[in-house]
Amino acid sequence: MKRRVIIFIVLLAAAVGLLTYYKLFRQVPPERFASAEDHFLYGSVGTEANDGVPYWIWLALPRVFPDLLPGPGGYASIGVLSQEGREMPVGFAKRTIGIERVGINCALCHTGTYRLQASDKPIIVATAPAHQMGPQSYLRFLFACANDARFNGKIIMAEIDRNTKLSWLDHQLYKYILIPFTRRALLKQQRVDNNYGWMKDLPPWGRGRIDPFNPIKYRILKQPVDGTIGNADMVPLWNQKQHANTVYHWDGLNTDLNEVVISSAIGDGATPRWVEADWKKSDSESSLKRIRQFIMDRQPPKFPLPVDEAFAARGKAIYDRECASCHALGGEKTGKVQPLDDPALKTDRHRLDMWTANAAQAYNGYTSGYGWQLTHFVKTNGYVNVPLDGIWMRGPYLHNGSVPTLADLLEPTEKRPKLFYSGNDVVDPVKVGFVSTGPDGFRFDTSVAGNSNAGHLWGTQLLADEKHAMVEYMKTL
Amino acid sequence: MANTMTVLSTEGPLVDNVLQSPVDRYQHSFRRTWMLIKVALLLMVAAYLVWYFTLDRPEKHAEILEHFKYGSIGSEPGGSLFSSVGGVLPPYWVFKALPSVCPEKLPGGYASLGMLYEPGHDLPIGVSRRRRLGIEQVGLNCAVCHTGTVRATPASQASIVAGMPAHQLDIQRLFEFILDCSLDDRMTADSVIAKADESGGRMGWLEKLLYRQTVIARVKAQTVSLRNRIGPLLAGGVPRWGPGRVDTFNPYKSIQFNWQLAQLPHDELIGASDFPSLWNQKPRDGMHLHWDGNNTSVDERNLSASLGAGVTPVTVDHASLARIHDYIWTLPPPKYPFAIDTAGSGRGQLIFNEQCAECHSFTGKKTGTVEEIGAIGTDPFRLNSYTLLFATSQASLYPESEYRFKQFRKTNGYANQPLDGVWARAPYLHNGSIPSIWDLLQEPDKRPKQFARGYDVYDQRNVGFVSNPPSQSAFVYDTTVPGNGNGGHLYGAKLPDEQKRDLVEYLKTL
Hints:
The complex is a heterodimer of chains A (477) and B (510). Chain A is mainly alpha-helical and 477 residues long. Chain A is built from 17 helices and eleven strands. The mean pLDDT of chain A is 93. Helices cover 35% and strands 10% of the residues of chain B. Chain B has 16 helices and 15 strands. Chain B has helices spanning 22-54, 64-70, 92-101, 171-182, 189-198, 205-230, 250-257, 298-309, 318-330, 342-355, 357-360, 373-376, 381-385, 388-394, 437-440, 497-507, and strands at 6-9, 12-15, 57-58, 78-79, 84-85, 127-132, 135-140, 147-150, 159-162, 245-246, 273-274, 370-372, 413-415, 450-453, 475-478. In chain B, strands 3-6-7 form a three-stranded antiparallel sheet. A two-stranded antiparallel ribbon of chain B has the order 1-2. Chain B has a two-stranded antiparallel sheet with strand order 4-5. In chain B, helix 3 crosses helix 5 and helix 10 packs across helix 16 (497-507). Classes of the chains: A mainly alpha (477), B alpha+beta (510). At the A-B interface, helix 4 and helix 6 of A face helix 14 of B.
C-alpha cells in the first residue's frame, strides 16, 4: 500500500517535472535563415532565454496598451521597422525555449531607413545606424505595461484568444504562470537596484541613441550606480573588414572585433552559456560568427542621388588635406583614440566618463570559467577618429548625435542648431544628414546634459565654398 | 445510515450481521439505487450543459448559391464561453428585434438600408446564423457586400445577382444603427424576448435565462468597446460612405490592431471605396487585387475580407470559405439583361481593343498591374488610407498558422481591373464617383458633380444605374467631398461621341 503511494508520487513528480521542462525549458534550435542578411535582421543572438518575452504576450501588448505608445502602429510607433510580409519586425527574433519567446538582436539598433521624399517608401539598410529607433521607448513601454493594472491574465488572454486557439494546457500556462511572471520580471528589471531604474532621472536617449554600457555596468558587471550619462549615437556595422585596424565603440573601449561582437550580444541579453555553445560552432553554424562575417563584408550604401563629380573632386583635395589623416580608411590616426583634451576636439565628455577602469576590469574578469574570453576592455581618455564610410547615412553627427548635418558640423559651435528633431529618415541632400526641422521625431535639445554640440572644430575655419565642396565629396564616401 | 452499528477492525469496518434483516437489505439497495439515479441525473445535466454550450452548429446549405447567400463563414462570435471573440453583429434575437425596439431610428427596417430579403428567409442575404456559446448568433458573410439588385423599370421586379457589388447597401448606416440601438435603454432582455415571442420565434427557456442573466449585458459591453474603436469612422467622423461603398481597411486598423484612430492623420480615415464584384476569380489570381492592388493572392484576399466581416483566426470557418472560394473561382459574370445593338457593339469592340484592352482585357499586358497614381490621376484618398505601416502590420494576422498573411504590399497607384460584367459594377472608378460608363468617357468637368447612388433601376442608354431617381430619400453623392473626387482616368475622353456610344454598347457584352 505504502509502496504504491510512493511509486505514484514519484511518477507524478516525474510527469510534472517533464512537463515543466517541456513547457518552460526545452530548447528548440531557432529558425535558420538562408540569407545572411535575414539572419542579421531576424536571427537569434541568444537573448530569449533571459530577456525573451513570451511570444503571445509580446504580440498582445501593443494591442492591449495602445495608449502607452507614442502613436498608432504598435511597436512601429517607437521606430521599430518591418518588411512587408515578414512576421517579425526587424531586430526581433523568435525562439522556442519551452514556449516561443521574442528577444532582440543586433539589427534593432543597427538597421536604418532612408527616403528621398516623405511620400517615398523607406529603404531599409541592414547594418546602418537605427537612427529612427527609440530603444529606451521600447523598454519604457514594457515597463509601463507591467505597471498597468490591465497586465493580468484575464485581459491579456482575451487579446491572445482573438488571435489563436491555445491548447487548454497552454492557456492555463499563459494565464496563471507566464503572464504574471512576465509582469513580475519586468517590474523587477525596472527597479532601481536592479538594472533600468537608474535611467529614470537621466536625460532620455531619444531616437537613434542608446546608453549602451550603463545597462551592462549595472546589470551584468554589478558596478555601483554612479549617475553617469552614456547616451551615444548608434553606429553603423558595415565594412568591418576595412576597419581592421580600428578600435571599437566611440571611446575605443575595446580593440578586438570578436570581443565586440560577443560583448554586444551579452549586452543585448545573451547568456554566457549560450555564447559558450554558439562560439564553439563552425563559422557557418554559429549565429555570432555569421553576423561577424556579414558585417565584415557588407558595404556601406551609396548616396542615392547624383553627385556633382567636378565639385566633389575639389572637395576631395580639401578633405585629403584637412580630414584624411584621422578619417580616411588607412589614415595615419584613423581608428585611434584622440585625447579629449585636444583643444580642437573637446566634444561632450559624458559618454567618455561613463566608462570606468573598474568596469573595464570587471568585464575582462566576467568570463572566467568559459571557453571564450574577454580581455581587451580598456579605459581610454578620448574618442575614436572614426572612418567615414557611408557617412551620409550616419547623421546626426558626433558621438552623441548632437549635430544634425555635415554642413552644420563644419560650422563653429555657436552656429550649429541648438534645437532640432532627430529620428526622421528623409535625406537632406544639401546639408547631408536627415531632415531635422520636425515636428515629427525626438526634440533634441543640445543644452541638456550629454547633448552638447560643442567641439570637433576641424574644418570650421574653411571658406563657405570649400565647405560645400567637401560636403559634396563626403557624399561619395 | 444512522441506525447501522459498525465495528471497526484492522481490516476496516465490520457490519454487524444481526442488522442485516430483509428490511435493511431493501433499504440499502433502495438507497444505493436512488444514489445512482441522482449521480446519473447530475451527469446527464452536466453532459447536456457541456453539449449546450459547446455546440457549434453553423448554417450550411448543400446548394452553393444558397450557401453563398446565407451560409456561415464563422463571423459569429465564438471562442470560449468565458472570453468570446469575433463578430460585429449582436445575437440572433437582438438583431431581429432591434428595428422594432428603436422604430424611429430605422423606420423601414433593414431593407431600407439596402439589405435584401428573399421569401422563405427571415434574415437578409449576407446574414448567416450559427449556434455558438449556447445561443443563436448571426454574422455577416461575403454576400452582404457582394450581392446586388437590378431592375428594368421602377415597376419591375428586382433581380438579385450573386457576386455583384451590393451597390444598394449602406453598410456604414447599418453599423451605426446597430451600435446606436444596441446601447438604447429600450434594448433590454425583456423587450428582446417580448419581440421574439411576438414574432412566434422559438426561444428556449434556457436561452431566455441566458439573455436575462448575461447576453444583453455582454452585448452592451461589447458594443461600447466596438463603438470606441470604430467611432471615428462613423457619422460625423468622416464623409458618408453612402450605399455601395465601404472603407475596407480603416475599421480593420482599430478592430484587429486597436490602433487609436483619432491619432491617425484625419485624411487617412477617408478610405471609402466601391464594393467590387466577386465573380470569375480564377483568372484574377496573381493579379493585383483590391483597388490599390495591395495583394496578389485570392486566398489571402478572401481571408482578409472575412476579417472585415467579423471572423477572427479562431472563429473562421475555413471549410465554408473553401466552398465559397470554389464558387467565386468560376462564377460567370452576369449577362447584360437588356437589348444590345450588335452593330454598334461590333464597332465598339475595335475601339476597345485599340484603346482599353491593354489594361482591361484579361489578356492585356498591363491588366492586373498597378498604375501609378500620377499616371491614372484618380482620387488619392483610398490609396493613401492604406499605409506601409498597415501593410507590414497585416503580416502578423493569422499568426502561427499556414494562413498568416505574407502578400500584402503598399503600392503607389490603383490596379487595372479586368472588366468582366462591368455593366453590373456601376458606379465607376474605385470610389464609385461616376454613375455611368458614358459619364466616365467624358472629360472630368463634364462628369456629374452630384448624383444619387443606390437606386437599382438600370440606365440602359448610359450603362449604369439611374442616378437622378424620383425618390426623395436617395443618397446624394457629392464629388467635391474629400475622397469623392471624380477626376482622372481620362482614357477615351477625347473620342467622338458616336465612338463613345459604340464603346459603351460593346462594354455591355463583357
